Amino acid sequence: MSARYRSLLIFGAPGVGKGTQGKLLGCIPGFLHLSTGDIFRSLDMNSETGRVFREYSSRGELVPDDFTIRLWREHMRKMIDAGRYNPQRQLLVLDGIPRNASQAASMIGDIEVLQILHLVAGDEDVLLKRMQRRAEQQNRHDDADEGVIRHRWDVYNRETVPVLEHYGRACCAQINAIGTPGRVLMHILEAAVPLHEKHFSNALEH
Ligand code: ADP
């Protein structure tokens, strides 16, 4: 078995700011942010894969696991082949995967999860407003409808929260996701930077 990708998982309910924070963290040398939602949205929507994604995401459902894992593995392979990801020097920041216990089990041979950064925001109404604003700005069909948003939260609580149990609470850092993006990023960096330094001391030698 080849070495597993050393990873951080950005975790939290839809709308909590995983994408924003993941992108910010990914700007720092040594971190590579990868969002499955972004991978899916970059598909050609007229292709078979694009059609499957749209069919599920427009209902607020998860795309089937085998399909998702296959697409993710292909994407990782392409990133490595293109020299855009170096597993020896970069900590992978995964956003949106694994998203249920069965994906976590399938990925045991693919990733070594060093820590989960669990973004927590108490107030659903704040999240709802954020997501509806995002729907207008980014033309996201799954963010426009309140019913679909609420269904995604149900799916998150039912299917995704058990992923925390899979890895164990000890592996999880709770991050307060209420505040300005810079403030939330500060909390994330406090957890992520020491981890990167510990596991990637080679990346500091330039
Ligand atoms: P959010 O976290 O705000 O729901 P994402 O961009 O992470 O947004 O995901 C958008 C949609 O893409 C999800 O609702 C789901 O349909 C699909 N998706 C993303 N990641 C996965 C995954 N790991 N497994 C299955 N479906 C996924």
Q: What does it look like?
A:
The chain is α/β, with parallel strands linked by helices. The chain has a single domain, classed as 3-Layer(aba) Sandwich (Rossmann fold). The chain is 50% helix and 16% strand. The chain is built from 9 helices and 5 strands. A 5-stranded parallel sheet has the order 2-3-1-4-5. Helix 1 packs across helix 9 (181-199). The protein is globular, with a radius of gyration of 17 Å. The mean pLDDT is 93. Bound molecules: adenosine-5'-diphosphate (ADP). Residues 14-15, 36-37, 40, 56-57, 61-63, 68, 96-97, 99, 103, 142, 152 line the site of adenosine-5'-diphosphate (ADP).
Secondary-structure content class = alpha/beta
Q: Which architecture per CATH?
A: 3-Layer(aba) Sandwich
Q: What portion of residues is helical?
A: 40-55%
> Care to count the β-strands?
5
Outline = globular
Please indicate the count of domains.
Answer: 1
Under the CATH scheme, which class? Alpha Beta
Q: How is the CATH topology named?
A: Rossmann fold
| Share in β-strands | 15-25%
The number of helices is: 9
Bound molecules: adenosine-5'-diphosphate
Q: TL;DR of this structure?
A:
With 206 residues, the protein is α/β, with parallel strands linked by helices. The protein is built from nine helices and five strands, in the order E-H-E-H-H-H-E-H-E-H-H-H-E-H.
Notable traits:
206 residues, alpha/beta, Rossmann fold, 5 strands, 16% strand, binds adenosine-5'-diphosphate
